[in-house]
Amino acid sequence: MLRMPGLIRDLLADRSANAVVVTAFSILSLIGGAGLATDTIQWTLAKRQLQRMTDSAALAGAFSLAKGGNARSSATTELGRYNLLTLNGSPVIETPPGSGSYASNTKAVRVTINAQKPLPFSSMFMRGTPTMQATATAAAVGFGTYCVVSLESTTATGITFQGAASVNLGCGATTNSQGTTAVYAGGGSTITASPISAVGVVPPSSNYTSGTVLNSYSLAQPDPYSSIGLPTGYSCSNELSVNSKNVTNIQNNGNGIKCYRGMDLKTTVNFDPGIYVIDGSTGNGLNINAGAVVNCTGCTFILTTTGTDMSTIATARFNGNATWNVSAPETGTYAGIMLYQDRRALAGATNYITGDNTSFMQGAIYFPSQTVQFTGNSTMNTKCIQIVARTVTFTGNNTIQNDCPTNSNSKAIAGIQIRLVD
Question: Rounded to whole angstroms, how far apart are CA atoms 31 and 154?
Fold first, then answer.
């Protein structure tokens, strides 16, 4: 019979089972490592999917908000397009955000969502399913400054540079046109303006000077004057027709509203500051003929109709060798607006804005439903104007420096884009 101490000594000296023990522990380590690696990959993928959902929802909400829509509804709809993860509870959609760097920003949307992700290996050692959270904030932010805005929203060309036009805007030009040629630069034109943006395509062209930034597929820009309506509480006199060679002075009773059934000016006319309404219901518009000189500091000329036929809304025609020395008001409802056409005007008509080398223009030219053809002279004083129209065509030699006084309400229009900000 073997003695007990000898048996233990023999077992300890035996090396035949060591490989089995080591192999067993090695297999357990491999299984554990593989399980943890698999869980890590799944967790990372789920986090990315959750963040993608959150980013998309925030962007959709901010886009909707910029267009005047329901940000929460758009964000919720966007979340519903994904079936990658099941959300844990309802999403939190804030506009404006209640926290973060864009807290209280009325142009921002913040989305926070939670989701649970079961992990095959780790769940064997956990009491519950882990929860992950993702947050994203999107907002409308600055995107260039523009002194030309085309509100054309179809596939038609929104901005045209043609002929031998030499256009130096000193700012950007943008259109909401969705066309494949949203902006056209052709002929012998030379364009110095940046950025040139469009919802559709801005084709490259040798007519743009070096350094011009072309932005296709940009966000549609809002009408900067959409909240400004027509004046009320006035009555109209007959057409203001001035043919005499004598200087005519038009008084306006302390910056009030004066209405005429058309204006046809052929000589020098000095207007008092105020609002001048041109009623086209009798077929007359704003006609500034060759040789006419129009002077006013602090004036807005409004083209509309008192009739029910929108085709009679007054249009504007400034003929060659006419002088237009007008600046917009600095205060009041129409601060910064020099020419304003009723937005009910029917599409199809063209308004011709031009002037001689002594003309001075400061303020916005606003024709949201019709075309403006701007034919300037390189020596015109157009250092501070903005053109907002359905479509804009440039001919002639135009120089718009957009160098506005710091205390002026006539300023370049800030463009916007939607992007993730937090």
Answer: 61
